[in-house]
Write a structure and sequence with these properties.
By secondary structure, the protein is α+β, with helices and mostly antiparallel strands. Helix 5 (118-144) packs across helix 13. The longest helix has 27 residues, at 118-144. It is globular, with a radius of gyration of 24 Å. Mean pLDDT is 89; it is low at 1-17, 19-25 and 527-533.
């Protein structure tokens, strides 16, 4: 499978910027208001429209809405079909485990981008920068203090840390280049009904999805070429991600010309496309555990020219599987002796070991206190209100109000291990009540937050509202922090659903962060053939 950016577009797909002569000119938004009411979205903040009843757009969406309204249904559907063909031909897929229809699927991409104006993005950047600095300080305190100060001061209960699934005692005292634990983070944000941005969770282990950010942007430049041409300086780019990531990875090594590899579990992993894509874009080797070995506490890669020392590993494998000497002895995915090499400072890992203790969903509840403790500031981006079942009074509240709450397991992901109370059956709520009582440490609950909605095209229906979240990607290196403008907007494609995860039927959108408050109208199409190829 060829994954280079140039080869991505080797097969020409042309999108006319004028409606075809036979195009149906029905308004693609005709059903938007009806579906908003039917799907239970009427209390949500709508990303595109200030007034849904009159379809009055927010200022930063006006140029995009005008562009869509000139196309007509047939032309828009043609673009959707060509986009789907592109995704299939390029193998841009994800895996759904346990699905009877097959596991490998094209990743659904909605062609109507989400737009974030400059002032909103500045607020998000400030909040994410503050949050990652605090979480990094928290991890360094846990793993590099004989008696972590934050535990001494009882800001975070010691029992919660020591019982956390991803707390790694084996990592205590290990070297951390530049004192940076979290090199790559994907923090999930939502927008509440009042328009405020909230943090839903942090992903500090092996966050996935950034390949779709880069691919979606390539696709959208083809879908709306004239709109991009008019706004080249106003839509912030995302294509510097891999360049920045590679520079940060290289900076983790003490050697002048380090060898960097990406360690993948293999082709059956749900994010394998992304692993292969990122390795190719950075020009580094994509390896599995069997491709590496440790000799005299140094990591080597097997090559046709003999062993080659490895200096930095961008690992896409959880801690449990990294080294059978220290973690799961039955693991065939990792490298025996890797922790010995790491402890000697002979190889660097991104992210470091044990970062998962900071994205434990129960520890999440304490992040505002963690920010206050290390930064001396209030959180710029607040958490969603959270109840932890390990506290007796909060557990009693959870059990009495399951029909109104979202309940999550502390270390599940992908939309699994979760109960959405208002949409659950009596039997499902009873089952979760038993789980909570059996293992109080493992569960938390939050009120149902009415996620914001954005317009999405649905075949046979037109453009309808669907719930969305946003996962920006934050890269941290010795020179500072880089936040890729926008990130991955994930979409709950099923009507009425709150679950945006791809494994649960979700999709994605391109996210345009503006350098100003509005877009310019699309430029006129070229006179010669009105086609961008």
């Amino acid at each position: 499978m060829e994954l280079s950016v140039l080869a991505m577009w080797h097969t020409e797909i042309a999108f006319s910027e004028k409606p075809t002569q036979n195009s149906t000119h029905m308004n693609l938004f005709d059903v938007y208001r009806e579906v908003q009411k039917r799907g239970g979205y009427s209390g949500a903040y709508d990303e595109m429209f200030e007034q849904v009843e009159t379809l009055t757009p927010r200022p930063h969406y006006k140029a995009l809405l005008d562009r869509i309204n000139t196309l007509g249904e047939d032309e828009f559907r043609r673009r959707v079909s060509l986009a789907d063909a592109t995704l299939m031909n390029q193998g841009i897929t994800f895996t759904v485990y346990g699905d009877a229809q097959g596991t490998e699927r094209t990743f659904p991409v909605d062609l109507i981008p989400r737009i974030v104006p400059a002032d909103e993005w500045k607020h998000i950047e400030r909040g994410l920068t503050q949050r990652i600095h605090a979480l990094n300080a928290f991890l360094h305190d846990l793993y590099h203090s004989e008696n972590p100060k934050i535990l001494q001061d009882n800001i975070v209960p010691r029992d919660l840390i020591e019982s956390a699934v991803h707390y790694r005692r084996a990592f205590i005292g290990c070297p951390v280049p530049h004192n940076v634990h979290v090199h790559i983070c994907g923090t999930d944000l939502i927008r509440g009904a009042d328009g405020r941005w909230l943090v839903l969770e942090d992903n500090l282990r092996t966050p996935s999805g950034v390949s779709y950010v880069l691919e979606n942007r390539l696709l959208l430049t083809r879908i709306f070429p004239q709109l991009f041409a008019s706004n080249r300086s106003l839509i912030r780019p995302v294509d510097h991600y891999t360049t920045c990531l590679l520079a940060n990875l290289r900076a983790l090594s003490r050697r002048p010309h380090p060898t960097v590899v990406l360690l993948t579990p293999g082709v059956y992993n749900s994010a394998y496309f992304e692993h292969a894509f990122l390795a190719q874009q950075m020009g580094i080797e994509l390896v599995q555990g069997a491709d590496l070995f440790v000799d005299n506490d140094v990591v080597y890669m097997r090559t046709t020219r003999g062993p080659q020392q490895v200096d930095v590993i961008y690992r896409r494998i959880d801690d449990d599987f990294l080294d059978p000497e220290v973690f799961r002895p039955e693991s065939a995915l990792g490298v025996r002796g890797l922790m010995r090499a790491y402890a000697k400072g002979n190889v660097a890992l991104a992210n470091t070991i044990g970062t998962g203790v900071a994205d434990d969903k129960v520890i999440y509840r304490y992040v505002p206190e963690i920010i206050r403790y290390y930064m001396g500031e209030e959180a710029i981006l607040p958490n969603v209100p959270t109840y932890c079942s390990w506290e007796d009074s909060e557990r009693d509240y959870m059990l009495a109000n399951l029909e109104t709450l979202v309940v999550k397991a502390a270390n599940e992901s992908g939309g699994y291990g979760m109960l959405i109370g208002p949409q659950a059956t009596v039997a499902e709520r009873a089952e979760f009540a038993e789980r909570i009582q059996a293992n109080p440490r493992n569960y938390l609950a939050q009120p149902v937050i009415e996620l914001s909605t954005a317009p999405c095209y649905q075949e046979g229906s037109g453009i309808v509202p669907r719930r969305v979240d946003l996962r920006p990607y934050i890269l941290t290196g010795p020179e500072g922090m880089t936040i890729i403008p926008g990130g991955l907007t994930r979409v709950a494609l099923k009507e009425g659903s709150y679950v945006v995860n791809s494994s649960q039927g979700g999709g994605s959108k391109d996210t345009w962060v503006l350098t100003s408050s509005t877009l310019r109208p699309a430029a006129p199409a070229p006179r010669s053939n009105d086609v961008i190829a």
